[in-house]
Amino acid sequence: MATADATGVDVPAWRGGFGRLWTAAVVSRFGDALRNAALPLLAVQLTHDPLVIASVTACGYVPWLLFGLLGGAVADRVDQRRAMWAVDAVRALLVACFALAVGLGHASIPLLLVLAFSLTTLQTLFDNASTALLPSLVDRGALGSANARLMTGQQLAGGLLAAPVVPLLLTVGAAIPFAADASTYLLAAALVASLRVTPPDREPRPAGSTLRAEIGEGMRALWHDRVLRAICVATLLCNVGVGALIATLVLHVTRWLHAGEAEYAAVLTAFSVGSLAGGFLAQRVARRSGRARALLLAGCVQTVSLLLMGSVRHLAALMAGMLLLGAMNMVWNVNQVTLMQQRSPEAMVGRIAAAFRTASTSGAPLGALLGGAVAGAFGLNAPALLGAVLFALAVTSLIPAGKPDVSDVASDDDARTGPVTR
């Protein structure tokens, strides 16, 4: 399940379950990126109403707020491997039907909304099950390396490889990116179905136990763990800041910097390149400072990056800021997810992950609305400066979690199966 690298640190073995899970995750992310790039292009062909087009994106957030907690409770009840491949099979069917509708000329905005909402609803179960499944495939000491490799591979596939492919596929036909996405879901489902894992030990549920009660247990476990609670609050603040920036980034580039579409694409590429670099840095930073303090470092660098982007009116400053933002975003994500997996009881990983994701994800749509309002009132660079303020608040809220006596308890050598409460 794990081997040691040249420095003696545990890393996941590629043979067996982790290699197949990694391949499934990367292939699926590639397909998702094809679909996500093609959907807005299809939407603008169907309507010119900005609010209607934005509602397609909003449908990607709403299910997390409605069903995120339920998805985590279900993920802790069922066989996570079976849940994942079943979800991918259903998603393949949905996207294939949508591709057929597009190919026959029956695409419509309501159909786009239904597809976006349905896929994200299914994702609430898939993502929580995936987070809970990984500790069954790799040793606890290798979780950090496993998360870094998973996220780096997904970023490479979705952030760099898929983007150039979409225009080529669209020249063949508007339905082709969606048909390709359906194919990747089927391949991912087959790979996950082939996994052989030992499910975590679960105590028998008390008579009369309900999903509502089990969701409450997950929320209480998250709240009572001092480190995870602080990270959740910090992530929420960061997501508000990132939502404000991303929602107005195209205006920042084209109107504040007076640049064009090519420069906008270059800015997005800089973030993706930074994310890949962050995937290689995440474990090194954690080994030197501890995971909680790695989050502190990442938050500080991101604060400076946002200040640079919002105060220096030059494309090079924006690209440098986005490069650093992407790198530290990956450092943050790898260490945040690893801490959550290490500090959660095996039978509750899905519910704690769901409570964490639901709380933190709610910041993105709020930030998008806030960013638009701030840009209109104070200028197109104001969302980046607002993000810097929110990231600074996030770093401040993390300081108690970064104390040595707290953060070092959940190091990669920690074999505990229960959360720490303080």
Q: In whole angstroms, how far apart are the ends?
A: 32 Å
Our estimate of the beta-strand percent is under 5%
Biggest β-sheet: strands ordered side by side in the sheet: 1-2
Q: For the residues shown, what is the average pLDDT?
A: 84
Q: Evaluate the radius of gyration.
A: 21 Å
> What does the main sheet amount to?
2 strands, antiparallel
In sequence order, what are the helices and strands, one letter per element?
Answer: EEHHHHHHHHHHHHHHHH
How would you explain this protein's 3D organization?
The protein has 422 residues and is mostly helical. It is 78% helix and 1% strand. A two-stranded antiparallel sheet has the order 1-2. Strand 1 and strand 2 form a beta hairpin. Helix 1 packs antiparallel against helix 5, helix 6 crosses helix 12 and helix 9 runs antiparallel to helix 10. It starts with a strand and ends in a 15-residue tail after the last helix.
